[in-house]
Amino acid sequence: MAWSTTNNRFLRAAQGGAAAFFLIFAAAVLPGCSTPQAPIKWGPPNAALGATFTLEEMERKVINGQTAIVYRLKTSGLPEGRIFTLLSKPLDSKPTRVTDQRFYATQTGKLLAQGPTVEMTTVSGSPPIDIQGIDREFLLTVAGFAKAEPLRLALIDMERTITVFAKTIPFPIETTNKERCRLWLELGSRKGDVFAVFGEGFKPDEEISTVSKSGAKIVEKKRNASAGGLLLDIIEPGIADQSSGRASYSVMSRSCVLTLNYDWGIAAQVVQ
User: Fold this and answer.
1) Number of domains in the chain
2) Could you report the average pLDDT of every consecutive run of 10 residues in the chain (272 residues)?
3) 122 lies in which domain range?
4) E-assigned strands of the chain?
5) Whose CB among 83, 86, 194, 262 lies 3.0–4.6 Å from 188's, allowing a Cys bridge?
6) Rounded to two decimals, what is the model's pTM?
7) What CATH number did the domain enclosing 245 receive?
């Protein structure tokens, strides 16, 4: 999950198109990008009261053995005329600017990149066009993500008074049941040795039994769902003297019985 000559070939293969695109690789700090001047507290999906920032998947395409995913970035509730910078938060890294390009939101929720210059990276294979002086809808292309690895983005206004966050998992590890309970993992370390477990659809405050298994390592817990029927747990499936392995995580309650199987360590770092 690092920038390489393979990634450079991917970038050349992806160039062209008629919309404003940018390309993020999961572990790459792109040339010309920089971290913000002051630290920000990476927060929940929507930290600004009344504002939202979401990602809408538009396309998936395999190029040079990697899956490229195109997202439309959508907003609501952001003030008109305010200019924003886009940041990403890779695993085990500080927040990093996606580009020096600046953006603004429209009343309809579109995120537009300001003219006169827009870096162009697409997966369409069509030739680039001259977009000088044109403000264009912003689409983001990502690649190089492992299973359960999160894509975390933030929009921060130039005055640093408004910040909204968005998160998605391009390649989820999740399971559901007919009772509409859902359980999913989020990779928490680039080494693949820490995961967050999220659950939803439980009865408010009901007791939940959890079992984390990795080889002979078994961790059993009892906890209560939140008032909103949610579950959060942190697991470390690593085993001494092993670089990788297969593990499982199970939950049992009156309303839900679910099990997730997943890889940890080196096997969890494989780019999709």
Assistant:
1) 2
2) 32 34 40 40 63 91 87 86 89 85 82 62 37 63 91 90 90 90 95 96 96 96 96 95 96 94 96 90
3) 5-168
4) 20-25, 52-63, 66-76, 84-88, 96-97, 103-105, 111-113, 136-143, 151-157, 163-168, 174-176, 182-187, 195-200, 207-214, 217-224, 231-235, 244-252, 257-265
5) 194
6) 0.78
7) 2.60.40.230
